[in-house]
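Protocol step 6 of 9: fold each sequence in the batch and record its C-alpha cells directly after the sequence line. For illustration, a two-sequence batch is reproduced in full.

Sequence one:
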Amino acid sequence: MGKKEVITNSENKNDMTQQSTIKRRTLLKALIGIPVLGVFAFELFKKYTYDQEKRNRVIKELGLDNMKAPVIVKGSSAKSDLLRIGLIGYGNRAVSHANGLGYMHPEDVEAGKKNDTLKDWLAQEDLNVAITGICDA
C-alpha cells in the first residue's frame, strides 16, 4: 500500500503542475498582447492629432477659421417661404416622395386610422410644401 500512495501522490503533483503551467501560459499569452495594444492606441492617437492639425491648417490657410457655423431655424411660419413643387410622372417612386413631403394617399390614411399611426403622422412639423401640379401621362 505504501507504493500505491507514493505513485498516487506523484501523479497528483504532476497533475497540479500541469494545471498551473497551463494557467501561467494562458496568462503570459494574454500579457503579451498588452504592449501591442498600447502601441496601436498610441499610433491611433498620433494619427488623430495629425489629422486635426492638418484640418486646422487648411481652415486657417483658407481663412475660414473666423466663420460661424450655420444655424438651422425651425418653425418658420412665413407664407413667403412656401415651397411649390410639381411632379412629372407620378410612379412608384413619386408616391414615396409625396409621403416624404407630407402628403398621403387616401388608402394610406385609412390604413393609418386602423393602425393608430395616423396621429403620429399628423403630429409631424409642417414642412410648408405645396404640390402645385402632377403630370402623369
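Sequence two, same batch, same settings:
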Amino acid sequence: MSPLFSKEKDDAQDNGREWLLPEDARKQVEKIFANLPTPVTLSVFTGEKGNEVYNDYMARFADDVGEICPNIEVEFFGIDGEEALTYGVEHSPTMLVSKDDFGIRFVGAPLGEEGRAFVESVLRVSSRESGLSPTSAQILEELGDKRHVRVFTSPG
C-alpha cells in the first residue's frame, strides 16, 4: 500500500475524530490540494450488501479528504438510489469526480497506485486541464465518435 494511505495507530484520532489517514498523510493531502483553483466534488456511492470493507474505506477516505480540503466537497449516495441510476453507477463502492463535468470514476477503494491516480484526477479536474499535449488533444478531437476509456489496476 502507498505510504500516503498507510495507517499508523498512534495518530488515528484527532480531537475526537477518528481519521483513516494518518497525520503525515493528512498534511501531504492538505499541501497537495491547498491551491485548487476551482472546487471539486467527490460523489461516493455505496451499497449495504457486499464489499463492506471497501465501502467503509472509500467513505472514510473521501470524508477525510473533504474534511482536510476546503475546496473539496463530498456527497454520499446509495447504490440503489436515483442518483446512481442517473450516473450509471452499478458497483459499490464507486467515486465520481465532479460528476456533472467529467466522466472520471473510481470503482473500488483508491488503494495503492489508485491513490496516485485519484490525486492526479482531482488536480486535473480542478485546473480544468487534461495534461494532454496539443497534438494529442487535436488527434482526439478529430476522432469524432465518443469513446469509453477504461483503465484497470490490480494489487501487485
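Proceed to step 7 once all outputs are recorded. Observation for sequence two: Residues 3-143 form a domain with the Glutaredoxin fold (CATH 3.40.30.10).
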